[in-house]
What does this fold into?
Amino acid sequence: MNILDIKYIKYIIIFLPISFAIGRFTTDLNIVIIGIFFICYSIYNKIKIDYLNFFILLILFYIYIVVRSLVSEDPVYSLHSSLFYFRFILYAYGIYL
It folds into this structure.
């Protein structure tokens, strides 16, 4: 039994709506697990990222958000809320698998 089997991620995706009702921690934990799964699965199976232009656009948008946070009036507070948005990019590609 391989830890990178797709069936495990399907259970997490099915559990995602329930985790919205449970609380923010479980929702964020599910999103992070799906993102980590995407990274490991892509490296292990040598998967090329489809829609590379869209991926680059999302990364550029993420960089834009972080730079805007750095030049705001309260950079620590802004970075706290915007620094970890990359997990949603990984989540979107993890669901794509």
In short: The chain has a mean pLDDT of 78. Residues 39 and 48 are 11 Å apart (CA to CA). The helical segments are 6-22, 24-45, 52-70, 75-82, 86-96.
